[in-house]
Specification:
mainly alpha; elongated; 3 helices; 90 residues; single chain
Length: 90
């Protein structure tokens, strides 16, 4: 256990930060999963709507500093490719 005030503060900060990071990691996974599931079910309208939300949310996370710019761009690019492939096949 911590013996200094600064160490106790660091523990509190880490707990808050961990909780916040867990929320964002889960949110990102769920956003991506929504697009992937709609692509898998071959529902083009639903996939495009989910992609629009994913694009907006991921770039919002970049501006908040939660995800790096290239990471968000990579994820958006892969989702877009999947949606476009579905659109071409339909």
């Amino acid at each position: 256990m911590a013996n200094h005030k600064s160490a106790e503060k660091r523990i509190r900060q880490t707990e808050r930060r961990t909780e916040r990071n867990r929320y964002y990691r889960t949110r990102i996974k769920n956003i991506i999963k929504a697009v992937r599931e709609s692509v898998a079910s071959k529902d083009l309208a639903k996939a495009q709507e989910a992609f629009k939300i994913a694009n907006k949310e991921l770039h919002k996370f970049v501006s908040k500093g939660i995800v790096k710019k290239n990471t968000a761009s990579r994820k958006v690019s892969r989702l877009n490719a999947a949606v476009k492939k579905l659109a071409q096949s339909a």
